[in-house]
């Protein structure tokens, strides 16, 4: 099942998260028709050379593209995985993973989806911890707060937060949990998965905007490796 933007926005509305920010970061990157120009791209270009990159600097283009893919693209992919993994638990009605489990008496899909959720959450958190970007740090904080807000319910089904901000899953404890506890922790009666899905979608959107802005602006201007390498820690 694919989780759509409309579904995420509806989940955000139910949990009180702001989902209508006006123009998103990607909107600002794409918008070149405002009367005052494009403030985001103006800021990016403020210290860049106005001359086009020479053919002798072709290697810089290749390096920038490689760094973009390694950093921003990896973050976008991990955020997408988290949005999908969390979105599985936000579906209501007959298609709900909880309703299907009650009907069949088999909770295997719940366990597998929960394991995927924890794995995706941890992967996204680790990528966010590699960047010094303030917006990404804020999103990482929001994800952590979503866990804290639901800590008791999550703990009841074997999900706890470690000191490094990642999650751990006690599979035996989850299997012994009641149906009601699972739904309270991971379903729509709680807020964890709804917030995680929504926040992850924002992380993905802004990662894509950053990739696009760097590719279209920095590559054309011929900025050096340092202009991008400071954005991400590529050692992980």
Give the tally of β-strands: 2
Count of runs of 4 or more consecutive helical residues: 12
Q: Distance between the terminal alpha carbons, to the nearest Å? A: 31 Å
Order of helices and strands: HHHHHHHHEEHHHH
Give the helix/strand class: mainly alpha
Strand percentage lies at under 5%
Q: What overall geometry do the principal axes of the alpha carbons give?
A: elongated
- Output the radius of gyration: 20 Å
Helix content: 55-70%
Could you please describe the fold and organization of this structure?
With 236 residues, the protein is an all-alpha fold. It has a domain at 78-206. The chain is built from 12 helices and 2 strands; from the N terminus they run ααααααααββαααα. The chain has helices spanning 5-15, 25-30, 39-45, 58-87, 97-104, 108-128, 134-149, 151-156, 171-176, 179-186, 192-221, 226-229; strands at residues 159-161, 167-169. Strands 1-2 form a two-stranded antiparallel sheet.
């Amino acid at each position: 099942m694919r989780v759509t933007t409309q579904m995420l926005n509806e989940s955000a509305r139910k949990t009180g998260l702001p989902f209508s920010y006006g123009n998103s970061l990607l909107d600002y990157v794409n918008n070149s028709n405002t009367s005052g120009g494009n403030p985001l791209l103006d800021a990016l270009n403020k210290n860049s050379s106005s001359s086009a990159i020479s053919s002798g600097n072709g290697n810089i283009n290749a390096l920038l593209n490689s760094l973009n893919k390694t950093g921003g693209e990896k973050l976008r992919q991990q955020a997408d995985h988290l949005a999908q993994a969390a979105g599985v638990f936000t579906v209501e009605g007959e298609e709900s993973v909880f309703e299907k489990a009650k009907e069949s008496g088999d909770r295997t899909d719940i366990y597998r989806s929960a394991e995927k959720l924890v794995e995706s959450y941890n992967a996204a958190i680790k990528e966010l911890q590699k960047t010094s970007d303030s917006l990404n740090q804020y999103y990482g904080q929001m994800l952590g707060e979503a866990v804290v807000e639901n800590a008791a319910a999550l703990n009841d089904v074997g999900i706890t937060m470690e000191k490094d901000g990642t999650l751990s899953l006690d599979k035996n404890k989850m299997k012994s949990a009641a149906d009601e506890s699972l739904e309270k922790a991971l379903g729509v009666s709680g807020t964890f998965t709804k917030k995680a899905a929504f926040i992850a979608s924002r992380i993905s959107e802004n990662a894509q905007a950053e990739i696009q802005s760097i590719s279209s602006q920095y590559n054309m201007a011929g900025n050096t490796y340092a202009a991008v390498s400071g954005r991400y820690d590529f050692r992980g």
